[in-house]
Design goal:
- By secondary structure, the protein is mostly beta strands.
- Helix content is 0%, strand content 49%.
- The strands form 2 sheets. Strands 2, 4, 5, 6, 9, 10 and 11 form a 7-stranded mixed beta sheet that branches.
- The protein is globular and about 40 Å long.
- The model has no long low-confidence stretch (mean pLDDT 94).
């Protein structure tokens, strides 16, 4: 199984929390979460450079979302707090390479594998 596999999506009311999980089969330098809402382009949410543990967040995620990893289990997590209706989207786990020791959520050229996605719906 080469693709990352996401889990943990669901429906929640505004202000609530969800934790997304991503299982991947082999070590990748960069792991991250992107999302795509209906009618909108896919956008980055949070990423982690697994070799150094550096984390990066999109402006929309800062202060509310936390990306973390469990290297022993080859898993990456996204803890989402204070969810808003505008967070409603399909969330995708991404795995890829790093050419400069960082992994930006602002672009996806580093992504080599995408997961199938997990739906997050936030109601007002």
């Amino acid at each position: 199984q080469v693709q990352p596999v996401e889990s943990g999506g669901g429906s929640v009311q505004a202000g609530g929390s969800l934790r997304l999980s991503c299982k991947y089969t082999s070590w990748r330098a960069c792991m991250g979460w992107f999302r795509q809402a209906p009618g909108k382009e896919r956008e980055g949410v949070a990423t982690v450079f697994t070799a150094g543990g550096n984390t990066y967040y999109a402006a929309s995620a800062k202060g509310r979302f936390t990306i973390s990893e469990d290297k022993a289990e080859n898993m990456v997590f996204l803890q989402m707090n204070s969810l808003k209706p505008e967070d409603t989207a399909m969330y995708y786990c991404a795995a890829g390479v790093s050419t400069d020791g960082s992994c930006s959520p602002n672009e996806s050229s580093w992504v080599r594998r995408w997961g199938q996605g997990t739906q997050v719906t936030v109601s007002s």
